[in-house]
Amino acid sequence: MKLAMIGFGQAGGKIVDKFLEYDERTGSGIVRSAVAVNTAKADLLGLERIPEEQRVLIGQARVKGHGVGADNELGAEIAEEDIDEIQGAIDNIPVHEIDAFLIVAGLGGGTGSGGSPVLAKHLKRIYTEPVYGLGILPGGDEGGIYTLNAARSFQTFVREVDNLLVFDNDAWRKTGESVEGGYEQINDEIVRRFGVLFGAGEVGAGDNVAESVVDSSEIINTLAGGGVSTVGYATESVETSDSGGGLLSRFKGEDDDGMDSANTTNRITSLVRKAALGRLTLPCEIDGAERALLVLSGPSEHLNRKGIERGRKWLEEQTGSMEVRGGDYPIREPNVAAAVLLSGVHNVPRIKELQQVAIEAQENMDELQRESEENLEALVEDDEDELDPLF
Ligand code: GDP
To answer: Is the ipTM of this complex over 0.95?
Structure first.
C-alpha cells in the first residue's frame, strides 16, 4: 500500500528516513511522501533522505530550534500552535494517491510523544484516509520520565488514530550494546517488519503473479476497528530456481512434485508458527487478537496456496479470531518470509507494567516537587521571619 509517512521527533524522522532507504533498496514503493517534523533543528539536519522542503521545524518562537527536552506537554502545545506549518508540508502530498497516513514517533521523548496525537487528531478531522500510528516504546533502562511520557502518549495516541502499531525498544534491546549501535539494528528490524507488511499490497507490473494476492484493502480491513497492533516475522533461506542449486531443485521438482509441494507447505506452516510465537514488535498473548493478516513472501516456486491456508487456519485457532486474512507476495529473494499482523490485541502485560512504572514515577516526581518547594522555603526564609522581601 502507498503511505504518506510523517516522522515526528528524532526517532520518528530517523525511521521514516530508513523506510525511504528500504524503498530504494527493495523497490517496494510504500512511501509515496515523507515529512519530518521536529522542534530541534539539529535533528532535522541529520536526516538523509527526506527532502529538505519536507522537513518542518516547529516551535521556533518557544524553543528556538533547541527541542523540548523530553517535555511532552510542551511538545503537544507546540504541535497545536504550529499545526498550520505542519499542514503546509502535508499540502504537498498528493493525498488522492495514498492509501493511508502513518505517523511515526518514539513515545518516550517530548516532541514526537506530545505532537503525534495532536497531528493524528488534526489529520482525522481533515482527511477521509485512515491515519495510523507507529509508536516506539522506550527501553526499561531509560528512566521514569521516559516511561511516564510513553504511558501518557500511548493512551492519547491510541484514541486519536485508526490503529496504533507498536514497537517495544525494551523487547529488542541487546545488553552490552551502545545505544546508537543498538538503534541502528533496531531500526532495521522495524523497517523490515513493517516494510514487508505494507509492501504486500504493492506488487507492481512485471512481478510474478501471486497465488492469492494481499491488497491494500486487506491491510486496511485488518487494521480497521482500531486498537493496538503487533507484528511477528520469521524467515528461512531457500534456493531459487535460477540460483546455483537451481538445476538440482528443478530436477527434483520434476521427479517428485508431491514431495516438493509437501515440503513447501510444511515450511510455510512452520514459518507462520515461528512468526506468531516468536518475538513480536510488541510482545503479547496472541490469544484474543481480534483480527490478523498473514503475508508470505518469497520466490513463487516456494509459495503455495495450501501452506497459506494452513497457516491461516492455525492462526484462527491460536487467536480465536474469525477474521484472519492471508496472501502471498512473490519476490526474487533467496528466502521465504512470513509476516503476521495481529490487530486489536488486549492481553499485553508490557503495557500494564509500563503504566505501573509511570504511575510510580509520577508520584515520585510530585513528592520531589513538594520537597523541593519546602526545602527552598526553608533555605530562603529566615528562621524568625524577621526579614522583609523587597516587594
Ligand atoms: P523527541 O525528538 O523529543 O521526539 O524524542 P526522541 O525521538 O529523541 O526519543 C524518544 C524515544 O524514542 C527515546 O526515549 C527512545 O526510546 C526512542 N528512540 C530514540 N531514537 C531512536 C531510534 O533511532 N530508534 C528507536 N527504535 N528508538 C529511538
So the answer is: yes
